[in-house]
Amino acid sequence: MSSPGGMATRKLRHIDACLTGPVEYVGVTTGFERFELPYNALTQTSLSAVDLSTSFLGVPLRAPVLIGAMTGGAELARTINRNLADAAQKLGIGMMLGSQRIMLDDDAAGNAAAASFEVRDLAPDMLLIGNIGLAQVSDNLAPRLTAALERVGANAVAVHVNPLQEAMQNNGDTDFTGSLERLARLAAELDYPVMVKEVGHGIGAAAAQRLRGMPVAAVDVAGAGGTSWARVEQVVRYGEVRFPAVADWGIPTAQALMEVRRELPEMPLVASGGVRSGMDAAKALALGADLVAMARPLLAPAIESSEAVVDMLGGFIEELKVCLYGCGAADLAELHRVGVTG
What we know:
Blueprint: H1 4-20, E1 54-56, E2 59-61, E3 65-67, H2 75-91, E4 94-96, H3 108-114, E5 128-133, H4 141-152, E6 156-160, H5 163-168, H6 179-189, E7 194-197, H7 205-211, E8 218-220, H8 229-238, H9 244-247, H10 253-263, E9 269-271, H11 278-286, E10 291-294, H12 299-304, H13 306-327, H14 332-338
Parallel strand pairs: 3-4, 3-10, 4-5, 5-6, 6-7, 7-8, 8-9, 9-10
Antiparallel strand pairs: 1-2
Helix pairs in contact: 1-8, 2-13, 7-10, 11-13
């Protein structure tokens, strides 16, 4: 188990690796390139009237976009999170915090680290999703996690499942025995909606089958094709990628999305993992996602300013609107009906 100080240092090393290291998948793509959004030259839509609004976990959004989980627990993380939250509030989209594990201990270090997650003052209306690892879920976690979620004003919590990342991490938590039962109990005990997510290696059919009947409110498939956290952890641990085949291991995002949608047809789904453009987002939504999420491309803008984040995401959302307009969809429901080809 890492100390709070050790966790904060590791978070800073993660940030550095994601900014400068070879952390993208090399031999695996998201799979979105295999699909086409049908272009309709006789569209009967008006670009200015395209409606991207939706709601997720009971919170209204102006666009189906979530800023993915990135960081927390260090002073730089506070700057990043606050710039992201300010941008999310301005754009009317959602945000997921990085792992709040460091907040679970009621001590000086935990209390100091908590400030890096406190963004609600900048974003009173934003969908804010807290975050904890499945490896940290224990039978007595609910009261402490509730306190951490209350402190940041979260609307829901994501439980991230990351066995491959943990295996590559120095002294990672690699015993997932009984974790499904603990997850089910936590989801039943918490007064918050629980979303299950991967970190970039994908939730597919086999994992989705294990979620059937559990009191889970949503799933983020977090597929392969973007940032590989098995690659990040190797860069942090060894200064190089020693196991490239493992670093490129995962279920491509488009495949993960389709598999989970088949297994859990009524489950609200987030598509993340290599979603880099409005066209990627449109394809993901047409394939059955309810929201899309983006993380690493926003890291450098978030260090700079909230305005830089708004500029980047504003362009992303505008491209998504153009995609709906060009395929003849006036809103997200129509986009689902249009679907994809390929």
